[in-house]
Amino acid sequence: MTLLRAGSLTVDPPVVLAPMAGVTNRAFRRLCREYGAGLYVSEMVTSRALIEGHEATLDMVRFDPDETPRSVQLYGVDPAVVGEAVRMVVDEDLADHVDLNFGCPVPKVTRKGGGSALPWKRDLFAGIVAAAVAAADGRVPVTVKMRKGIDDSHLTYLDAGRIAADAGVAWVALHGRTAAQMYAGEADWSAIARLVEHLDGFPVLGNGDIFSAQDALRMVAETGCAGVVVGRGCLGRPWLFGQLAAAFAGDPVPADPALPVVIETFRRHAHLLVEAFGERTGCCEIRKHVAWYFKGYAVRRHIRQDLANVSSLAEVDDLLALIDADQEADVAVMSAPRGRTGGERSPSLPDGWLDSPYLDAASAALVTQAELAVSGG
Q1: What share of the chain in percent tops pLDDT 70?
Q2: Tens of pLDDT along 210-245?
Q3: How many Å is the Cα radius of gyration of the chain?
Q4: Would you list the domain boundaries of the chain?
């Protein structure tokens, strides 16, 4: 397939790690890079917190010396603030690529008019994208990640895709779910195909329900998308990126590793987290990955529970040694969706948000308050 390009960057294979809060830190990105290639995006960073120099936010945009390309995802609801944040990224050489978040469905974001709620306000969406592209000034590529819309009665992806393409972004990535769906059910790949057709040659990336290399190839074949964005499918499975690289190169796809390799990868992940954040924080961070790595394996309950409460690398090593490594995975369990799978819900939105697809005085005031409210990263 045609190479995926973003300005001077070439993404080969055309695979992007989706930003995931509390997951896609520099330790996890390094682990994924060791298995494969592509573009690995940071956790979502709040624009105002970045320009205010919030310590935790600045730490989120720190990259390993050998990490390239460096990719950061920005969240914001005010064009001026987002533009200033992008200008800071460019002027201070903080990253090589900026992705704009219009896909987050969590209530604390959408109730402020942000994330997947924001494209409903077409003029606000257009203003933010235009401000980001102008601030980047061609020095780093800007891309957009979004969902189909707020719910099935308030779809935005076709209009938003056209607005973003006309504004000069390098590509648009579409998660084939609405905000109301959260991560429930199946992703609508037909929407990705419709956006590809609608934008007629402009690069569209597909996101949603890619849990294997075969899923990625099937998405490209069914939708015509220029590449794929992988989120939950790589949780506890960083080797998925090596499998994706092989699949896109037309090479035999490596099998999932045996349990001894899974155990060693978990250990490696824990060490990388401690190296990046110190032993206390690093061990706290590895706890959330226990269920993902050992999904489909018979690991005794007390071992799982203790791994989910570790406070030192010595504890990690002692507990991993207790796992019976001579066992096969339960394939049915392994192939099930990972991460969040909660049911649909009515999106949390600002009062009157759906009254008009354009900003009025009331919604403009809400947006200003939202930008201030999320300060802190």
Answers
A1: 94
A2: 999 999 999 999 999 999 999 999 999 999 999 999
A3: 20
A4: 7-255+342-373, 259-328
Query: 79-91 vs 122-136: helix axis angle to the nearest 10?
Result: 20
Judge whether 203 and 189 are in contact, CB under 8 Å.
Answer: no
Taking Cα atoms as reference points, which of 367, 360, 354 lies closest to residue 112? 367
Rounded to an integer, what distance in angstroms lies between the CA atom of residue 165 and that of residue 199?
8
236: left (phi over 0), alpha (psi -120 to 50) or beta: left
Match domain 7-255+342-373 to its CATH number in 2.40.50.100, 3.40.50.150, 3.20.20.70, 3.40.190.10.
3.20.20.70
Selecting among 32, 104, 234, 283, the annotated active-site residue is 104
Tokens of 330: 């339960």
Do 15 and 39 form a contact (C-beta atoms < 8 A)? yes
Closest CA to 298 of 319, 327, 322: 327
104 among known catalytic residues: yes
Nearest CA to 101 out of 12, 179, 194, 180 is that of 179
Pick the closest to residue 142 from 199, 188, 82, 183 (CA basis): 82
Distance between terminal CA atoms of the chain?
A: 38
Q: Residues of the chain with pLDDT > 90: what percent?
A: 84
Q: What is the DSSP string of 1-17?
A: -PPEEETTEEESSSEEE
- Report yes or no on whether pTM surpasses 0.85: yes
